[in-house]
Every structure is written in C-alpha cells, then in structure tokens.
C-alpha cells in the first residue's frame, strides 16, 4: 500500500508540473503574439518616447511579479500590457531587418531557433539533476558583468557586437534552463514563471538576430 501511495504521489506531482508547464508556455506564447502586435503598431520612429517605454517596461516587470502574488488575473493583464510595449520597444531593432526579404528570413530563422532552443532546454530540465539555484546565481553575476561590459563598450572601448551577442545567448540559455527547472519544482506561479521564460526567450531571440545578421544589418 505504501508503494502504491508513493507511486500515486509521483503521478500527481508529474501531472501538476505538466499542467503548470503547459499554462506557462501558453501564457508565454500569447505574450509573444502581443509583442508582434506591439511591433506592428509601433510608429516608424519613437524618438524620446522610446526611453519612456523602456522605463515603463522596467517598472512593469516588478509590478507583474507583485500583482501576480495578489491576483493572477491582474498579473496576467499587466503581463500582456508589458509584452505589447516590449514589441514597441524592440521595433527599431526589428525594423533593421524587415525592409528586405533576406532580413525577414533572418527574423524567421531567429524565431525558429529560439523555439527549438526552448524545447531543448525544456527536455534537458526534465532530466537534469544539479544545484540550479547555484547555477542561476552564477548566471546572474555573469549578466551583471555583461551589462558592465556593454556600458564600457558604449563609452570606453569597442566591444565586438557578435561576441557580445554570443555571451548574451549563453547567459540567457542558462537562465532558460534554470527557469524550466524551477517550473519542474513549482517554485512560483504561472504568470511569474511566464515572465521569466518570456524575458529569457526574448533576449535569446535578439541575440540570435545579431548573430545571424552579423554586420550586414541595415541601419536606419
């Protein structure tokens, strides 16, 4: 009887995890549709309003995490507002590619590679067995270093954009793996995990755009 109870407990846990994962991926997918919509409705030039959108999106990241703990519905609404505004924020980057068939192909390739990468990390997370919290902390400090490198590259010395993109890809791929493992252990709610997965995938997508586009991107 004890063995049966243990087996039932494992099956319930697996079902709960699968349900959470399915909900997170659904929320994230819809979020990317809102991002595409935001990019589509964005004006050709944003001017100084771009900085206001960046600040608002930064505030929304914290607002979503707070709201989701109080109300899933409110957290979800804020998440979709955020993903729409992110589409507006990244529209200047996407516009560098969408003026030509070759550029549009790069966007499609980056999107497909991101989706495949997410699937791969999801599979690895299911079987991985290591201290992912420690790995996540290491990735966080690596991200801080990457941000500092980016600031120095803007004002002090030249940083090769492709190398920077590869570093971004590696760091956020680690974050993605860690977040899938957090879903496996059901550490947070669906909206909070969707926010983390969305940010991981978006940064991976933007890094792949840079890598696939190389130095031949069309600039405004």
Protein described:
Helices cover 84% and strands 0% of the residues. It is an all-alpha fold and 220 residues long. It is globular, with a radius of gyration of 19 Å.
Please provide a brief summary of the model.
By secondary structure, this protein is mainly α.
If you average the pLDDT, what whole number results? 88
* Residues in β-strands, percent: under 5%
Catalogue the unreliable spans.
Answer: 6-12, 216-220
Which sheet architecture does the biggest sheet show?
none
Number of domain units:
1
SSE pattern, N- to C-terminal:
HHHHHHH
Q: Number of DSSP strands?
A: 0
User: In angstroms, what separates the terminal alpha carbons?
Assistant: 69 Å
- Quickly count the helices: 7
Radius of gyration over all CA atoms, rounded:
19 Å
Q: Structural class from helices and strands?
A: mainly alpha
The percentage helix is over 70%
Key traits:
7 helices; disordered C terminus; 220 residues; globular; mainly alpha
Task: Note the topology.
Elements: H1 2-41, H2 49-70, H3 72-95, H4 101-127, H5 132-155, H6 161-184, H7 190-213
Helix pairs in contact: 1-3, 1-7, 2-3, 3-7, 4-6, 4-7, 5-6, 6-7
């Amino acid at each position: 009887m004890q063995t049966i109870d243990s087996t039932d407990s494992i099956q319930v846990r697996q079902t709960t995890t699968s349900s959470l994962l399915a909900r997170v991926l659904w929320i994230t997918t819809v979020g990317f549709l809102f991002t595409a919509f935001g990019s589509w409705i964005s004006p050709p030039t944003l001017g100084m309003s771009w900085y206001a959108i960046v600040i608002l999106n930064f505030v929304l990241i914290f607002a979503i995490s707070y709201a989701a703990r109080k109300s899933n519905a409110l957290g979800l609404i804020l998440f979709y507002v955020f993903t729409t505004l992110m589409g507006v924020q990244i529209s200047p980057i996407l516009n560098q590619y969408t003026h030509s068939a070759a550029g549009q192909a790069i966007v499609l390739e980056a999107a497909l590679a991101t989706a495949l990468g997410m699937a791969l990390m999801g599979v690895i997370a299911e079987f991985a067995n290591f201290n992912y919290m420690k790995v996540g902390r290491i990735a966080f400090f690596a991200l801080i270093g990457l941000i500092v490198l980016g600031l120095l590259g803007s004002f002090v010395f030249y940083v090769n954009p492709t190398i920077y993109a590869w570093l971004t890809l590696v760091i956020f791929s680690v974050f993605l793996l860690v977040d899938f493992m957090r879903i496996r252990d059901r550490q947070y709610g669906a909206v909070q995990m969707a926010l983390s997965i969305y940010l991981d995938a978006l940064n991976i997508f933007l890094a792949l755009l840079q890598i696939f586009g190389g130095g031949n991107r069309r600039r405004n």
